[in-house]
Design a protein that fits this description.
Blueprint lengths: L9 H15 L9 E2 L10 E9 L10 E9 L4 E9 L1 E6 L4 E12 L2 E13 L4 E11 L7 E7 L2 H11 L7 E3 L7 E2 L3 E5 L16
């Protein structure tokens, strides 16, 4: 009687196990992309400003731009991906009320991309609209250990006037998520370069040391 044997490879078992885990896992859902430039038909529930600035000297041609930022809602267990594509922008979002955390920010400088993990909680009130302040992202010069600092300044009077000029039909109360008395400065975080990297022949990745 002829019998056949099937070779045993450890990587085959590992691959099968990984596929089973991937099939059973339930990824955290993302909300639809919400652009800060396109007005929404829904009534906004939060608004603010975001701005990126460069500190120190830099050899790169293109100035930094905020590509997007992400919010996480512990209440809904959902993430909101907000496209910006500007060095500074006003944003007004129609998202459900509750607790939120600013979790990630991506910066671009021409062909360069950098991602920073942050943790800045705030709350969107159930009535009216919530002003979440002016977010300033300050970048260190491009080095291997490049960092980013997030600071938040609350200027509700000027911000409310700007919001009412954009949404004159809004007649609800305006709440503030951060105190007006002093700036909120989050811990400095690492700005990680992410793929794809530009070709060195045409781009300088880091400032000379």
């Amino acid at each position: 009687m002829m019998t056949s044997t099937i070779p045993s490879y450890p990587w085959c078992a590992a691959l099968v196990g990984w596929l089973l885990l991937a099939a059973c896992a339930s990824p955290q859902p993302f909300a639809e992309v919400r652009s800060v430039h396109a007005p929404s038909e829904d009534v906004p529930t939060m608004f603010g400003r975001i701005h990126v600035v460069q500190r120190g000297s830099i050899a790169r041609i293109y100035p930094p731009v905020v590509r997007f930022f992400e919010l996480y809602s512990p209440t809904l267990d959902r993430r909101f991906h907000v496209e910006v594509d500007a060095a500074q922008a006003f944003f007004a979002l129609a998202i459900p009320p509750g607790e939120y955390v600013l979790t990630r920010v991506q910066i671009t400088e021409g062909a360069f991309r950098g991602m920073a993990q942050v943790h800045q909680p705030f709350e969107v009130e159930p009535t009216g609209i919530t002003y979440v302040g002016a977010w300033t992202l300050t970048l260190a010069p491009p080095r291997y250990d490049r960092t980013m600092e997030l600071s938040i300044v609350s200027e509700p009077i000027a911000a409310t006037a700007e919001f009412m000029a954009r949404y004159p039909a809004f007649d609800g109360p305006v709440h503030t998520a951060f105190p007006e008395s002093e700036a909120v400065i989050a811990p400095t975080t690492r700005l990680w370069e992410i793929y794809p990297y530009p070709r060195y022949k045409y781009f300088l990745r880091h400032h000379p040391t």
